[in-house]
Amino acid sequence: MSQQSIAMAPQPAAPFQWKKFFSMENRYLAPAFITCILLVGQLSFGFLESYKKTVAAILASLITELILGWIYLGKRPILASAYISGISVGILVRSPAFWPYIVCAMVAIMSKYVLRVHGRHIWNPSNFSISVLLYLAPATVAALSIQWGNYLLPMVVIWVLGSIIIYRLHRFHITATYVVSFIVLSYVRSLLTGSPWLSEVAPLTGPMYQLFIFFMITDPKTTVKSKKWQIVVAAMVAVVEMILRLDHVVYAPFYALFFVGPAAFLIEDWFKTRSAIPAQVPA
Predict the structure, then answer these.
(1) Domain span at residue 220?
(2) Contact status, residue 150 vs residue 205, Cβ threshold 8 Å
């Protein structure tokens, strides 16, 4: 058989590799999983305001990413991150109007390109935009809280899929630290407020917290690099959240991450920049 015939012969398809599917190289694994979470929650309990509002948030996020990517980078960016931001807005935002979904998604993506230090954005995009809208438009915008209830099925789906995602990202210690800190601090809150400990720890089992601990606090782009300091920062987020909750702040986890995450990032960046400056040798 000639070499040309061999080259033209159909080649057998490469076998599917599960290891590669769950590897860091697959940028679309997290979007696929968070889509599964949305579908399970919607089909089981109908927790979305509407499909149209969620689709509007996703489209606004993708279009904004394409436009800003072309302007700032001169090329079409990978849209996996923008899709996650848009679908997170669609899940977490509650409003009778359409505009908060579109504005929130656009602000999330814009924060990635505008609020940067040394080439990295300092806020988790969806955390930034949701926190800003909750603060500026409290009469129109709310966040997902008890719409799912504490049902077992969506919790199991989120924990399984979320655990797979953060395991492959090597971020499970962040989630574990936050969860342990929240449980311990909820007992402290029960002592300070006199409320039952179970009522203080119960929010952790709700869907808002599940999405927060898996898809927001573990964002690889905005967490500090050192594993030790990632643990410290996760614990600090829980501490600041406890303080805000004691002051009856409704959306304490969003605001806690909004303040602690960028502060930790900037401190780490300052130390890194300072260590890079060569010491002056005395004459």
Answers:
(1) 150-272
(2) yes
Domain boundary among 117, 143, 169: 143
**156-172 pLDDT per residue, tens:** 777 887 788 788 778 89
State whether 132 and 157 are in the same domain.
no
H helix or E strand, kind and range, residue 72: helix 51-73
Task: Provide the token pair at 195.
Answer: 């409320």
Pair (249, 179) in one structural domain: yes
pTM of the predicted protein model: 0.83
Instruction: Give the residues across from 117 on adjacent strands.
Output: 120
Q: CB under 8 Å to 6, separation ≥6 — which residues?
A: none
For residues 122 and 103, state if they share a domain: yes
Tell me the CB-side half-sphere exposure of residue 75, using CA atoms within 13 A.
3
Same structural domain, 209 and 257: yes
**Are 250 and 235 in a shared domain?**
yes
Q: What is the Cα–Cα distance from 7 to 147, expressed in whole angstroms? A: 58
Q: How many residues does the chain have?
A: 283
From CA 132, how far away is CA 137, in angstroms rounded? 8
User: What tens digit of pLDDT does each residue of 63-98 get?
Assistant: 999 999 999 888 888 888 899 999 989 888 999 999
d(CA 218, CA 54): 23
Instruction: For Cα atoms 163, 177, 254, give the angle at the middle one, nearest 5 degrees.
Output: 85
Give the list of residues 6+ apart from residue 97 with CB closer than 8 angstroms, or none: 140
Residues 165 and 111 in one domain: no
